[in-house]
Hints:
The chain is mainly beta and 253 residues long.
Amino acid sequence: MVRGLALLALFLPALAQGYEVGLWGLGGLGGAYLRLQGELALPGGRLGFALAPYGRAPGEVGLALERLVLVGEEGEWALALGRLPLTLGEGRLFPYTWNRPSPAGGEEGVWGGYLTGYGEARLRLGWFLERGPFLEVALPELRAYAFPGGGGLGWSLRAGPGVAYGEARWEAGQGAGLVGVSLPLEEGVLTLEATYPWAWAGAWWGSLEGWRLGLLAGYRDGWFAALEGEWEGWGFGVAWPGLGWRVSFRGDF
Length: 253
């Protein structure tokens, strides 16, 4: 498997359609990364990937394979295999996800696969290396999923001009829940969420003088806040506590 990943690392960059290069820092640490991503059309399907060489202080150098998804499609059925991004919860600000933070600043998916059937209800049956079997049934406004030791329910519905949503889940004998609402506000979208165990946050994403901006503040085991922006491919981010920062540029080949 290691040899196969090494070969992929050699040929995937040549197929990249987009890239992101960035610098980040947190306290006395910092790093740089180059993220290459693309999608290759194949007979009956496609191959998508995101690959990111990076360097971090003090002297760490590596290669993050964040996503590698082979998808085959036939009628109302699709089979996905590889390193897959998988977020199960309804939360926008506190998402319940099996993905992990990437050392290059993004997210790494989970190894496995699933078969998806698209009909009046979406049926998804899969298996993941670290979690085992997985089952999900989704209707337009309601979703249920189960895996060994846990499961959950999620819902979303129109609330005037916005969307209200929530979830309830259990894992390892412990319960958790979330409610939220997203509303259009001042050339953007305002999102408010509260969770159990106790946490809450509010965020606004929108446009201002040509900038795409995001503002976030909330409480989860302590207060936190973040500011993100993007303008003509350039992006930045500042987060507190810790005063982490990021500067990046995105483009296409």
